[in-house]
Amino acid sequence: MHHRPKNASACKMKKEMGAEIVLVEGSRVFESWKSPPPPVYMEYFFFNMTNVDAFLAGAKPQVTQVGPYTYREYRYKDNVSMLDNNTMVSAYNFKKFVFLREKSVGDPAVDNITTVNIPAWAVMNKVKGSFFRASMASMMMTSAGSGFFATHTVDEWLWGYEDRLLARVAASSPDVDKVFGLMYKKNGSHSGEFVYHTGKQNSMEYGRVETWKGESKLTFWTSNQSNSINGSDGSAFHPFLDKNERIYIFTPDLCRSIHMEFEKEVEVKGIPAYRFTPPRSVFASKEENPANEGFCVSPKECLGTGLLKVSPCRKGAPVVASFPHFYLADKKYVAAIGGMSPKREHHQTYLDLNPTTGVIVRANKRAQINMLIERLSGFPKTKVLNETIFPIMFINESVVIDDASAARVHKLLLIVTVVSNFPLFIVGLGGIMLLVFIVLLFRARKQKNEVKRTVFTKPLYATSNEEGTSYSPVSDKEKEDPQNGTYISLTPKGDPEA
């Protein structure tokens, strides 16, 4: 009996929010979806190898974390096109990076980092098993002076340098690029065409990815479940979030969808939020989570908990993704590298979402790039190496809602709350007015009866007048006000401050 008004109010609230939060021109969220106003920062932390010779002789590798090298990340969506009667929208997600010296530990053009020679290991993995091709690659590596480890500046590791080994390979294989960089060609570029649900038909579909690069499924993995494109791209979430639901995000960087679960309630700039974070099960081993078996490149190439081998979408290179410092991973990976120290507050990925609107109020996306180093047939020098997941660098992509956007969220929450509760307000007001009317009616009757049997005297009239002042009429000013009773003005959607 008590639930009906609450449900009616919730339905009204959802309807109002559905009209406000939709990826259609003119809506409150459309422009900020295309060009997000809050500043996004990308921090790069590198692991500098300090004992190369000792490691190659069989010792445990020792690394030192160097960073952050911080960049302001400018995001925007381009080539935005409405589809299927405004129920879908297509767009390309562009990113640009501008270096911020004041937020960084040093100059990326000067600071050197020694780590795994990624191009060399990529080439060796490509030709392993073939004696002839491996012999050719060994000769090329020798002539290029290319070893298992290399030293380059932060700028070179990130944005690219011409690699001597790749240049030799490219001479006979035109499809190979002689330039290598972890972020090569990613400054000012996009990650492919996305098609999103606008939320026009169903607000719970708002921001969900329908297709990426024209496909509704991936082809990298070995099961339908692993190849599914689930959820949003991480830039928009449906309103009315529930603590018990899983949030799904498709991320091209990992070439897969991941899920997040509710952790705790937080508050950012006065806005209530739910913190969602990826649980251990996301990167769990197939033994721990059988659903992850589809992420094994092959039965032999199936890593333990906390790791994802992304070689299928990295041209076969032995690249392994994890959380920084192997957070949430099997302890053996942490123990294998000197210098690893996983801590939740520094290495956890999380999203703080306002549950009513689905708006991101704060986020930290953290991921680590590792290389799988092992013995490779055809390369005798690798015989001394044990299988090692070697950390190269990790990123922290962070955002906190700006003050102007926070004010808009507060306003949206107020409008939706007021509009959804307005019928209840009217009912409540009606109840009060009815009570006042009954009291007045009762007093009028009482007064009428007294007139019949009492001769009015001046003192008695004065007393009645005093009692009658318990209800006073609205002032003349209020009578003239055409907006009387509407105590909040609903701002038009065109208002830039809305």
TrEMBL record:
It is found in: Membrane. Keywords: Glycoprotein, Membrane, Transmembrane, Transmembrane helix. The chain crosses the membrane at residues 422-442. Pfam families: CD36. Residues 464-473 have a biased composition (Polar residues). GO terms for molecular function: scavenger receptor activity. The keyword Ubl conjugation does not apply. InterPro entries: CD36_fam, LimpII. Residues 464-498 are annotated as: Disordered. It comes from the Eukaryota. GO terms for cellular component: lysosome; membrane. One of its GO terms (biological process) is receptor-mediated endocytosis. Belongs to the CD36 family. PANTHER family: LYSOSOME MEMBRANE PROTEIN 2, SCAVENGER RECEPTOR CLASS B TYPE-1 SR-B1. This is Lysosome membrane protein 2-like. It comes from Gasterosteus aculeatus aculeatus.
